[in-house]
Structures are given as C-alpha cells and as structure tokens.
Design brief:
Blueprint: H1 2-21, H2 27-49, E1 52-57, E2 61-63, E3 68-75, E4 83-87, E5 95-97, E6 103-110, E7 116-120, E8 124-128, E9 135-139, E10 144-149, E11 169-170, E12 173-174, E13 181-187, H3 199-203, E14 209-214, E15 222-226, H4 233-252, E16 256-259, E17 267-269, H5 276-284, E18 304-308, H6 317-321, E19 327-332, E20 346-347, E21 350-356, E22 359-363
Parallel strand pairs: 2-10, 15-16, 15-18, 18-19
Antiparallel strand pairs: 1-3, 3-6, 4-5, 4-8, 7-10, 8-9, 11-12, 13-14, 16-17, 19-22, 20-21, 21-22
Helix pairs in contact: 1-2, 4-5
Length: 374
C-alpha cells in the first residue's frame, strides 16, 4: 500500500497548499490524487477478500525427471480482480492475471531431478490495481508434499559380456534362480521325505541321518546399499538409483534381496515385484547418516552386490568375508564403457563387468582375498 499512501500524501499536500495560498488550480489534482489512492486501495482490499486459490497435484508420487501436472485455479468473489499475478516456485516467472476476470487457470508441468520428499510452498496471489498503487498478497492455506522416487536404469554390460542377466552367476550355474543347497546333516525326524535320508551313512551302519538343506533365500543375489560418505550429493543419488535398478533387474530374473541401512535382515523381492513399491519408497528416503548391518553376510552363499556411495581405497570387509560365489563392488563413476576401453577398464586389477545408473560394477570374486580398489 506504500504507493497508494504516497499518492494520497501528495494529494493532501496539494490540497493543503491550495487552501493556504488560495491557489484554486491545485485543488483539482490534489483532490483527484486523494480519490484515486483511496479508490485503488478500497478496490484491491475488497477484491482480495474474495480471492480463493485451489491447487491440484496430479499425483503424490512420481519418479525422477517424470513430469507432474499441477493445476492452479484462482477465483474471485463478488468483485473481479482488478489486476495482479501469480507467484509459484515452480513457475519460471510470475504469471499475470487478466484484469476483470473472475477465474484464472494455470497448468504447470514440473520435473524433479532428485529423489526425496519435496515440500511445495503454497502459491502467492498478488492482487493490485492497474496502476500498481495498491497491492495485497493472498496465500494458499497449506503446502503440498510430493515424494520423488529414484528412477530405474538398464544394466549395461561391455561387449561380449552378455545382456546383464548373468552378472550374478556362480561357476557354471546361474544363482539368480531359486536353489536349495546342502547345509549338513542332522538326526532323522519321523515323517521326513525319503529323498532327504542320508543313505550312505545308514549303509555303513551309522545312525539314521537326514540331509539339512539351506533355503533358497541364502543363494539368491543380495544387493547391499552403503550410502555413507558420498563425495557429492549426486554420488549418493547415483548409488540409490543403481541399487534400485539392480533389485528390479535381478528380481525379474528370479528374485533377490535388498539390505538397506537400519535393517537387521534383508528384504526379499520376488519375481512378481509385489513388494517393490514399498522398497522403492524406502530407497527414495535413504540418507547418508547410517550404513548397512553387514554382520550376517558371512553366512550367505549367494552373490553379493555391494553398492557404495563413495569410492573406497580398499574393498569393504563384507565382500572379503562373504564365502559365496560372485562378489561385486559397485561405485559411482563410469557412465558407460566405450568399446575400445571395455577390456582395459580395471579397478585394482579387476575389470568392470557392468554399468548401471552412472555407477560401475567390478567383480572381486577371483580369489579368496579381496584385492584393493584403486
């Protein structure tokens, strides 16, 4: 209201001067400015009282870089809005409202480059007169929340390494398929299947024993996410995208597990992807404050894919203690592999076997002792 107050003050001074010095020509502009400032202020105040803002977000969940349609509807009361504009953080510039209209609609197509919970501040409606003498700001009641999920990207393997479905293979057989491995012997339990009885021991005159089998959950691939110590926020996002992409990739090939920070046990993901929406939300909210619980990884027999948000100087101990088949370290960096460099790209003597979401995966299972990573 400062321009209107300044205009009214000028009008008052002109009127006062006209009355003091009996300068009748000054009455006209003085009174005119007073009336103009008062009318503008009254018009804006009365119009702003009836303004209503309605914001509709098409969805509460979206994926990185996917468009989200947001509709803004501004309606006035008995008096039409004299003039003004709409301010919103998602608009590149304020959107002007047509003078005299009772309803204004704006459609915003927004994209979010990073995952996480996004709070959309309420839009602001600036009501003013055509001359800009008086303004009034009207704000919507509540902000809106939107959850941005990490996007999924393809697993890309160098030429000659297949299509990526065999990245979790165990010497001679794919471990991404459901398996049941022998895990020792135990005393025979009445009612156990005859196929489980250890007949060689019985033939030698020993006690009746039955085979103890390990569940297939221990042999399926396990993706471990370590979000700690990222050099940049982009590295953390890349690691989360890589973990999400690998989970869906391996689940479709037969199932896998995902170990997130704060979890004591992995969450298994079947080929039907029934539990994927819940895991997708959890991945969107991962931060870099805590690391994974790797205490139980030593007993796993299946492939282990360790996704780190930083490039360690030495491979994680969890990979060295794992006694299963394939062990992979996935770190940020390496957006794809050129054909000429496919056979030369190495980390501590280990060749990169795949790339996904801006991260590179290195196989570290060539020897019992895990080599250092440069």
């Amino acid at each position: 209201m400062r321009p209107a107050a300044a205009t009214a003050l000028i009008g008052f001074l002109l009127t006062l001067t006209a009355a003091t010095f009996d300068a009748e020509p000054l009455y006209v502009p003085g009174v005119g400015l007073l009336v103009l400032a008062g009318a503008a202020a009254l018009w804006v105040v009365q119009s702003a009282r009836g303004v209503r803002v309605q914001r509709t977000v098409a969805t509460r969940r979206t994926i990185e870089e996917q468009p989200v349609v947001i509709d803004l509807v501004v309606s006035s009361g008995r008096l039409p809005v004299p003039s003004g504009y709409i301010e919103d953080d998602l608009l590149p510039a304020p959107a002007a409202m047509v003078s005299g209209r009772r309803r204004t609609e704006i459609h915003i197509s927004a994209r979010f480059a990073r995952r996480g919970r996004k709070v959309l501040p309420p839009p602001r409606i600036v009501v003013s007169d055509p001359l800009g003498l008086a303004t009034r700001v009207v704000t919507a009641d509540e902000p809106a929340e939107l959850l941005v999920l990490p996007r999924l990207e393809k697993v890309v393997t160098p030429p000659g390494e297949g299509d990526g479905t065999g990245l979790a293979a165990r010497r001679g057989r794919p471990s991404i398929a459901a398996e049941v491995d022998l895990d020792g012997l135990r005393p025979y339990r009445p009612g156990a299947a005859a196929s489980r009885i250890f007949w060689p021991g019985l033939a030698r005159g020993g006690e009746l024993m039955e085979r103890r089998l390990r569940s297939d959950g221990d042999t399926r691939p396990l993706v471990v996410l370590d979000p700690r110590r990222p050099a940049r926020d982009e590295d953390l996002d890349a690691a989360v995208r890589a973990a999400a992409s690998l989970c869906v990739h391996l689940a479709r090939a037969g199932g896998c597990g995902l170990l997130l920070p704060g979890d004591r046990r992995p969450t298994m993901l079947e080929s039907s992807l029934i539990g994927w929406p819940h895991l997708h939300v959890r991945l969107a909210l991962v931060d870099d404050r805590t690391g994974p619980n790797v205490a139980g990884l030593a007993s796993r027999r299946g492939p282990l894919l360790y996704v780190a948000a930083h490039q360690p100087s030495r491979a994680p101990r969890a990979l060295g203690h794992a006694v299963g088949g394939g062990r992979y370290l996935i770190v940020p960096g390496g957006e794809g592999l050129p054909e000429r460099a496919a056979g030369e790209r190495r980390a501590g003597g280990r060749r990169a076997v795949f790339t996904v979401a801006g991260c590179t995966g290195y196989e570290l299972s060539g020897s019992r002792r895990v080599a250092e990573v440069a």
